[in-house]
Amino acid sequence: MLRDSSIDKPFLVIAAWQES
Prior knowledge:
Elements: H1 10-19
């Protein structure tokens, strides 16, 4: 999941993880 540097879209990754 964190293969494209989560620095570009940190908020997006957190939101997706929380939604999961």
